[in-house]
Amino acid sequence: MPTPIYNITPFTLLDYPGRTACILWFAGCNMRCVYCYNPDIVLGKGRLSIAEALTFLRSRQGLLQGVVLSGGECTLHPTIFPLLETVKEYGFDVKIDTNGSRPRVLEELMTRQLVDYVALDFKALEHRFHAVTKSGLFSEFVESLSLLNRSDVSFEVRTTVHSDLIGLADLQEMVKFLQHVDYRGRYYIQHYVNGVPVLGGLGRSEKNERLSTLSTDQIQIVIRE
Ligand code: SF4
């Protein structure tokens, strides 16, 4: 029996805006972001089956409002479709965290009304995308962003900033890019946390307090600590 899920966080107030939720952590990823905080999940194997996750979720019906699919990259796992069919029957709202690399999967999730909220990582612009993610999946990210922009599914765009990878000028270009593709709303910035084990060998990141000054009429930068 396939075991795509690495672990379950049984309760969170922080990961699904406005909802009490749990998190299903999916093993494996098609990127290798140098600042990734979840090397065990990205490089490790899953340990729980969909059936085991559903048993847990059934026990939380009426106690939690939402289910977050995170990882790793949950859209790599075809079993999220039967999983989410049942999760919706159970009455949960669904959020997915994604790096945007599987636009066709995202499109199908939205068409089948299996997702209520999407957190989309904006890793970097094209010229820095490989340095940050060790992948060539920028155009897939752009397609995912475009799909979300055209949909009525709630979503957020977010970027992790390490000062060696994304400086003030880079972020300014990223804001311009979002404006260019007509994204409107909040743009969440998370500073890299020094001292946490990550995938790549990164030095200390210096916080730049000026990042929040890059907000525009169209895009409000929100720093997440
Ligand atoms: S930070 Fe990068 S490598 Fe880590 S799970 Fe997200 S997309 Fe994958």
Description:
- With 225 residues, the chain is an alpha/beta fold.
- The chain has one domain (5-224): Aldolase class I (TIM Barrel, Alpha-Beta Barrel), CATH 3.20.20.70.
- Helix content is 30%, strand content 23%.
- An eight-stranded mixed beta sheet has the order 1-2-3-4-5-6-7-8.
- It is globular, with a radius of gyration of 17 Å.
- 36% of the residues are buried.
- The mean pLDDT is 96.
- Bound molecules: iron/sulfur cluster.
- Iron/sulfur cluster is lined by residues 29, 31-33, 36, 38, 42, 71-73, 99.
Features:
single chain; TIM Barrel; binds iron/sulfur cluster; 225 residues; eight-stranded mixed β-sheet; 8 strands; Anaerobic ribonucleoside-triphosphate reductase activating protein; alpha/beta; S-adenosyl-L-methionine
